Amino acid sequence: MASETAATAVPGVVRPVRILIINPNATASMTESCVAMARANLPPHIAVEGFTASPPAPSAVEGFLDNVLSSAAAVRELKPLAPGYDAFLVACYSDHALVRMLREELDQPCMGIMEASLYAARVVGGRFAILATSARSRYLHEDAVRNYGLDHFCAGVGACAIGVLELDGRPGAVAEIMMRKATELVRDKGADCILLGCAGMTGLRAAVQEAVGEDVQVIDGVLTGVYHLAGLVMSGLKTAKAGVYTSSAAYREKRGQTYL
Question: Per-residue b/e over 203-233, b at no fewer than 16 CB within 10 Å?
């Protein structure tokens, strides 16, 4: 497997840990922003590449249908690429179906950026809050936090009343909205960690951090997710296949299903 020769703590590293940042929507600029930010903050033993889903994947993931359509489109393209990577980061801030799909079909570690930010917040803070894009995203994030069993630690989800693609279109105005909302979540809700609730927000982390001050931690799930996955790979961990993530490939073959 690819992970067996990746960088580890053992002397004589032959190559870096290779992580694929997966954008399950079809907007390439969002992928490019995530990859550029990650590469600027990584040591030589971790390498990242980007993947953008092709149409019929939606241009943004803003609901249940977008989630399913983007997962179905992306997984078909990803399967042939999988052997070249040690881990996979799904860069969509949601409980995205693609995360579990890849865990089922592959043994390399896979996680989503929402998971990454939530786990980080539980380590470095006591109460976290999430900056969401729209009001609907707020509800989806609240449900996801509850499903992860972390609602007790959630100070709130603040909706910024913006669309996902607006993050590229008017970053200055969006930054002002995010800074104001983050300040409110800290002041009024007692949050000590602010989580960026969309992959497209990754370039605005510094602005939000300046607004809330150095004692509050602003967490970007993209960079946090890359480091988390690299740690798993370097620890020699894979996706467990004895239970819920047993691959269904053998069953598809048994029933004569030659397509994915």
Answer: bbbebbbebbeeebbbbbbbbbbbbbbbebb
